[in-house]
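Protocol step 4 of 5: obtain the predicted structure for the target chain.
Materials: sequence only (see below). No template structures provided, no constraints applied. The aim of this step is simply to have a reference model before the mutagenesis design in step 5. Sequence pasted as it appears in the construct record:
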Amino acid sequence: MSLISPIFGIIELDFLYEFYKKPWYKPMQTDNYNLLIQKLDSFIRKFYINGLIRGGLYSLGLLLGLFLLFNILEYNFYFDMRVRKAIFWGFLSISIAALGYWILLPLTKYFRLGGVISHHKAASIIGDHFTGVQDKLLNVLQLKEQESTSAQKGLLYASIEQKTLEIKPVAFKSAIDLSKNRQYLKYALPPFLLFLGFIFMAPNILKDSTYRIMNSDTKFEREAPFSFEMQNNDFTVVQYQDYTLEVTVDGAVLPNETFIEVDGFQYKMNKVAKDRFGYDFRNVQKDTEFRVFSGSVTDVINTLKILRKPNLSDFSIKLAYPGYIGRKDETLRNIGDMLVPEGT
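Step 4 output (structure tokens):
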């Protein structure tokens, strides 16, 4: 007996050993041990729930932060197709990796669709929170593993039963405090609030940039800060006459100077008002193409069409003379000046 006590650390096991070694005793899984395993399994599930919450906050912060960063960069720099394609596939890859590692993996572990932490590992984690519990938990698990090979099954069961009763009051799940995940809100809350700010105050930044990134195979031109609007309803002029073109500028930023290109030559337009410019076409003889521009902002090419001036090619005048002069009526062609008797 003196050798058994040091091994298990409990003197009372001597009596239990004498009881359990009787031939009529058949060892069975104790309810206390089953309860212990259930509590460990419950702790393991909460362990992965805790990881899922933490991973969700990490994922939200990372993906929202990258989403806002890429959209702001695209909005300001108007990347070409290659850069937008790299942004799209890069963001997609990071999203899959983050959601897989921080969300999908804990979920599969929670539902035991893959390997989970062992009871020994769970006991170590619990022992870090509850002083003195780790050794007892590990001892119970080790004794249970020795059950199948030990010749002293009764003594092992007695030891398992006693140690299980000692740690039965301990609530293993309380070793994990889900509320401590609030500390990870610092990663998710700022990008989330910034995202809401863009949604309500500047939705076009996210909408337009996201559309261009998702359509990375399409070429987009940078939206101009202002636009030209022609005030003339009709681009026609009678040949050899003058024509005045009037243009207004609309936008958040207005140019100080505006130019017009006519037949490959550039001319400065007259500034009529802060948002209005004009240009006079002199003695227009033929159809003339022109475009209005300022800096990098240009309008479409328009054509000023001429209406040919009427030209009299032939005319005739029939003269009916009065009868008293005895002159026959006659017809004159292409004569504009004449002297005829009164009454003709």
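Step 4 remarks: The chain has three domains: 4-196, 226-307, 313-344. Residues 13 and 162 are 9 Å apart (CA to CA).
Proceed to step 5.
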